[in-house]
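Quick review question:
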């Protein structure tokens, strides 16, 4: 009986979908991914291309369960912003759709907040890691060919 209970408990734990807020950051033309991130146990880990500096579009994705619970209530699915000096700055006044006026990445710096500040209300600490070769997380890679 104990073995069956332990086996069922283990299956329930491993079958539970992982909850994670995810982030993909693109250049304004959506040609190059310049950063990505994911929340794991209260920490939001971000990797960014250390060779890129300029305007960006940041796209957040939540699970349906997170949306239903309101885990990240108020967080939009897209923001304009800039990647400068290893810091992702989010334009909280933009509508998240890139336009020609904001392509310089200058914008109104008063509306730009660091990612750390944007995620602070959700009790997520931000860990940023520069990289020269930006690869997507393993769970989002597609196998090509046979």
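Suggested answer, residue by residue:
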């Amino acid at each position: 009986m104990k073995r069956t209970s332990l086996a069922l408990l283990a299956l329930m734990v491993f079958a539970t979908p992982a909850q994670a807020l995810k982030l993909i950051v693109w250049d304004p033309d959506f040609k190059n991914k310049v950063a990505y991130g994911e929340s794991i146990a209260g920490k939001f880990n971000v990797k960014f291309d250390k060779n890129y500096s300029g305007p960006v579009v940041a796209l957040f994705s939540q699970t349906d369960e997170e949306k239903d619970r309101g885990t990240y209530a108020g967080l939009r699915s897209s923001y304009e912003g800039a990647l400068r000096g290893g810091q992702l700055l989010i334009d909280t006044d933009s509508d998240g759709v890139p336009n020609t006026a904001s392509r310089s990445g200058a914008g109104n710096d008063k509306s730009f907040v660091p990612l750390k500040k944007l995620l602070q209300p959700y009790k997520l600490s931000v860990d940023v890691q520069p990289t020269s070769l930006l690869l997507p997380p393993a769970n989002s890679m597609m196998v090509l060919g046979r």
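Why it works: Confidence is low (pLDDT under 50) at residues 4-17, 100-107, 138-146. The CA atoms of residues 39 and 49 lie 19 Å apart.
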